[in-house]
Amino acid sequence: MLRSLLAALLILPSTGVSAAEYRDRSVPMSVETDLDVKRYMGRWYEIARFPNRFEKGCQGVTADYALREDGKVRVVNTCRKGAPDGPAEQARGVARVAAPGRLEVTFVPFLSFLPFLWGDYWVLDVTEDYDVAVIGNPDGSTGWILARDPQIDERTFQAAAKVLQKNGYDTSALKRVPQLEE
């Protein structure tokens, strides 16, 4: 539980912790306003990310989402330390829909009444078949390319990277995440 609290404090910009900004915040962000949250549920593989403190040394990263009875989303992020098949560490959290395409997530659910413990998780784009998603946040401290499969082809990767660019991100800082082949 302490580890979850520390992770949450590191990822939220309102905590005063300095985070890198990978996005020109003068560029308006566009989100997937028709996001079907039910179709978004399930396992996602992290294909690429902007460097951040809470995923340092992580490879083989997955995110599992499941709807809860209260309408919120259960979040389980798994990081494999040092290698795609390395020792697993998990962060468990809760997400809620703030607006179409805009979710908020906390990894300290027992303190979810504190507004500063919720971080923005905006779905900038999702493919029609819900196989690839592009995620960002307004302050530009995080961003991800996720996919249902651990590998995507270069054309698909470049299309996802263009979504980040369109939303003001400097994709030169984007790092691919090693995954095991299925």
From TrEMBL:
InterPro entries registered for this protein in UniProt: Calycin (IPR012674), Lipocalin_ApoD (IPR022271), Lipocalin_bac (IPR002446), Lipocalin_Blc-like_dom (IPR047202), Lipocalin_CS (IPR022272), Lipocln_cytosolic_FA-bd_dom (IPR000566)
All copies of domain Lipocalin/cytosolic fatty-acid binding, residue ranges: 35-179
GO biological process, one term: response to stress
Gene3D superfamilies reported in the protein's UniProt record: 2.40.128.20
Chief location category: membrane
GO CC terms, sorted: cell outer membrane
Similarity section: Belongs to the calycin superfamily. Lipocalin family.
UniProt function note: Involved in the storage or transport of lipids necessary for membrane maintenance under stressful conditions. Displays a binding preference for lysophospholipids.
Name of the featured protein: Outer membrane lipoprotein Blc
Lineage, opening ranks: Bacteria, Pseudomonadati, Pseudomonadota, Alphaproteobacteria, Rhodobacterales
